[in-house]
Write a structure and sequence with these properties.
Blueprint (H helix, E strand, L loop, with lengths): L1 H5 L2 E4 L2 E4 L4 E9 L4 E7 L5 E5 L10 H20 L4 E7 L4 H10 L3 H18 L7 E4 L4 H13 L3 E3 L5 E3 L12 H4 L6 E6 L14 E3 L1 H13 L3 E7 L3 H16 L5 E7 L2 E3 L2 E2 L10 H4 L5 H10 L6 E2 L2 H25 L9 H20 L4 H21 L8 H20 L4 H4 L7 H24 L2 H16 L3 E5 L2 E5 L1
Parallel strand pairs: 5-6, 5-12, 6-7, 12-13, 14-16
Antiparallel strand pairs: 1-2, 3-4, 8-9, 9-10, 10-11, 14-15, 17-18
Helix pairs in contact: 2-10, 5-7, 7-8, 10-11, 11-14, 12-13, 12-14, 16-17
Family: Belongs to the class-I aminoacyl-tRNA synthetase family.
Protein name: cysteine--tRNA ligase
GO biological process, one term: cysteinyl-tRNA aminoacylation
């Protein structure tokens, strides 16, 4: 009875989601089986399992793939760096598939040449997007015997049967755990799917036991993931388009293989990348390669866009949203640079340290609550923006320039450290993302001279209420801003930063 009370059951139709036993992270995460947010419990905080469905390497990856992998990268970083969960991550590479075979036939190019080319390109894209590489990468063609053993075990258990053409087909008995599926939409019975495809005349034989052929797409991930993590997997991730039928079929196979009701404890699905409210996909021919995108939108801007949209929600890729991502990043960089100028003594201020400290504490609490609420990074961005804007106002409202306010300075340092730490957890290094220019000390001295001269003209304009002089000063400031030099005016002093 105690054991039953300790476990959490959620029933949907004939399916149960069972709350795992282990370390409660304090996070509530959406569960597609339970159809609601549930407690996130990992079996072992020091070694938690995460499997991501990798690419089918027959073509270039597009930015729809990028949005999925960047969002998953953000979640992994949060679990590792913020919640201190040690994830062991695995990804497969599908290097044998119908699409690859068809491309090989159409282009008269060997399969290995196609897959090696596009896998190399994929890892280059991973690096350009600043994604963490998986701890373990499993290529399908390197593990064919192990996948075959998985299929034959299902056949021996009576969970599969041999089809007329020699293929092995999974015999579906229960379906619709991850997504509601009506039998009325699928015929008199749920659609069986192929575990092992028998070879055709124009295909490669893998010289294995029975029969000659290759694994079905759904079976690849099931066999590979279970070969590493066994009968229970903490996280299994991919885009929302994989939830059905791919992940549905994976769960069905592994539950049958291990004779249990639940294989994956938490399925993690990211929303689609959209253009004009239409999903981006190769079949619709509305895709953009990652390399093309990075020519006009750098990787950090794209990451910021993913951060600004909840991982489960669809994201519209528009020039306006790209611009918004750029502005957010620039605002963070400018804020940190500006605060550094203040801390370095270029501008003496007097601010209410108690008020700023209270704001910082509230911001920390709000961000923690948001991250514990299904990783709501979009709300975290709003909290950071509010913290930055209020801090800006406090600095600019200061009228004390005679002595440095050390208590206020300490509060300001705490704010800047928190902002830097928070964005670093999301995968940003603002010191590296700023535009690097080849500049010498002479350049800095030149800007110092120009800024000081401009400030003297500005003060003269203010004293004599000369609008023409003030407009000229505004023009110099605006022109400097266009080349990345930010000038801020403060009573009797102006400061600049890059």
């Amino acid at each position: 009875m105690r054991h039953q009370l300790h476990r959490y059951f959620h029933k949907r139709l004939n399916h149960l989601w069972v709350k795992p036993v282990g370390y409660d992270t304090g996070i509530k995460i959406y569960n597609c089986v339970a159809k609601e947010k549930v407690p996130l419990v990992v079996r072992n905080k020091d070694c938690s399992s995460w499997y991501t469905c990798g690419p089918t390497v027959y073509d270039s990856s597009h930015i729809g793939h990028a949005s999925c992998y960047v969002k998953l990268d953000i979640l992994q970083r949060l679990l590792r760096d913020y919640f201190k969960i040690n994830l062991v991550t695995v990804m497969n590479i599908t290097d044998i598939d119908d699409k690859i075979i068809n491309k090989s036939i159409q282009t008269k190019t060997p399969i290995s040449e196609i897959t090696q080319h596009y896998e190399k390109e994929f890892w280059e894209d991973v690096e350009s997007l600043d994604l963490m590489k998986p701890d373990l990468v499993l290529r399908v063609t390197e593990h064919i015997p192990m996948i075959e053993d998985f299929v034959l075990e299902l056949l021996n258990k009576g969970a599969a049967f041999k089809d007329e053409d020699g293929s092995i087909v999974f015999n579906i008995k229960e379906y619709g755990k991850l997504q509601n599926v009506s039998k009325a939409n699928t015929g008199p019975a749920y659609p069986n799917f192929t575990l092992w495809k028998a070879s055709k005349d124009n295909e490669t034989n893998w010289n294995i036991k029975y029969p000659n052929g290759r694994p079905g797409w759904h079976t690849e991930c099931s066999a590979l993931a279970s070969s590493v993590f066994g009968s229970t997997l903490d996280f299994h991730a991919g885009g929302d388009d994989l939830r059905f039928p791919h992940h549905e079929n994976e769960e069905a196979q592994c539950c049958a293989y291990f004779s249990k009701s639940q294989w994956v404890n938490y399925w993690v699905h990211t929303g689609h990348l959209m253009q004009k409210s239409t999903k981006m996909s190769k079949s619709l021919q509305n895709t953009m390669s990652i390399r093309t995108m990075l020519k006009s939108c750098d990787s950090n801007t794209f990451r910021m866009m993913c951060l600004m949209s909840h991982y489960r929600k669809n994201m519209e890729f528009t020039p306006e949203f790209v611009n918004s991502g750029e502005k957010h990043l620039e605002n963070y960089r400018n804020f940190l640079t500006y605060c550094k100028s203040v801390i370095d003594g270029k501008l003496n201020i007097c601010i209410n340290g108690d008020v700023l400290t209270k704001l910082l504490i509230n911001s920390k609490e709000e961000i923690h609550k948001a991250l514990c609420d299904d990783f709501d990074t979009a709300y975290c961005v709003k909290v950071l923006n509010n913290l930055i804007n209020v801090t800006y106002k406090m600095i600019n409202a200061s009228r004390e320039n005679l002595n440095r306010d050390l208590q206020g300075m300490l509060s300001l340092i705490n704010v800047t450290n928190f902002v830097k730490h928070t964005v670093s957890v999301f995968g940003f290094d603002l010191d590296q993302t700023s535009v690097v220019k080849e500049e010498s000390k002479d350049f800095d001295q030149l800007i110092n001279i120009l800024t000081e001269f401009r400030q003297n003209i500005r003060l003269a304009g203010l004293e004599k209420k000369n609008e023409n002089l003030l407009q000229l000063c505004d023009g110099v400031r605006n022109n400097l801003n266009r080349i990345g030099i930010i000038v801020k005016d403060h009573k009797d002093k102006s400061i600049w930063y890059k």
